[in-house]
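Backbone shape codes:
***
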Amino acid sequence: MNLKQFKQMFFAQLRMTFREKQAWFWGIFYPVILMSIFMLIFGSDSNEEFQTQVAIVHEQPNQTSELLFTQLEQIQIVELKTGKPVSREQAEEWVKEQEVSAAIVLPESGESTSVELIMNKEDEQSTSTQAVSATLDKILHQANLAIVGATPTYEIEYVSVSAGESNLDYSDFLLTGMIALAISQGGMFGMVDLVDMQRKGLIKRLRMTPANMSLFGLSDMVMRLVFSIIQIILLSLIGVLLFGANLYINFASLLVIFLIGALSFNALGYFFSSFSKTTEAYMGVANILSFIMMFLSGIFFPIEMMPDWLQPVSTILPLTYFAEGLRDSMVYEVSIFSSSLWLGIGILTLWGICAYLLGSWLYKRKSLVSVR
């Protein structure tokens, strides 16, 4: 490698980038704005206790209905709308308008053996409706045991374990995901200036010099790496100081996954620029891949929450392993010797090398065509 040429190219591109105000916005401020918006939307209420509103129909009080009503009042996750029972007509209207998650119709007599649960058909599978259904099922199960005089023998004891600290929450998960997303987008969108240089004929002129095009691409990727360092520091400070996120960093693991991930996504941007003839074409390709990875790589929610048929798609996306690697090294303090960490590093490296080699080959092919 010609280090002198690489150094000259690096500082030349760094000066060009610092002169462009748009580069500062899209490389630094846009990720900050994006993360702040999503943290406010998804992270602001994540630590609050879950609670859902229901309507209770208790038109003909009796011993059985009074017992069930007393138990429902003591359930913390269930909040009675207006704080008192209402008519069936009012309850059904609230359910239709989705003002409550469900309505519970208590037995009209002591001989009745059923309790109605009124749900909105469009909202049957929601978390709130399922929580009400499970709560009601548990209350009725306990009531059935009490009637036959049976004593519960087994019960569930909930124990949570984590590789990190005990006070981890959704803000930690979202912060590391947003850092991964910001760095990946910075790499994939950051090479658009190469397309502009091609359009203006600057790349063609550069090919006519002794400049090594592979070094040119590598110097641009390393320069973007500087931006990524600023991104990860700035986003981490905002997440911790403004949104109360907790970070427990293993610096050795973070350094490796950060360098490999940032360079790999820069290589993807370099590859996009090698076959894009216009800025619009480049942005279109980058936007499509970025959009897919944004929602299928575990940025906003765990991959396990996605449908089973969609989860295999996540296993081939580089952002999946970058987000998991950052989360492991910044939240769970996973050791540098972890096999799962190195599996992700290996896949990211493969993506980066393939993208860089393909991009270099396409640039070299263009160079040969232009000379003929």
Observations:
- The chain has two domains: 12-45+169-371, 52-147.
- Strands lie at 52-57, 78-80, 102-105, 116-119.
- The first helix runs from residue 3 to 19.
- The mean pLDDT is 80.
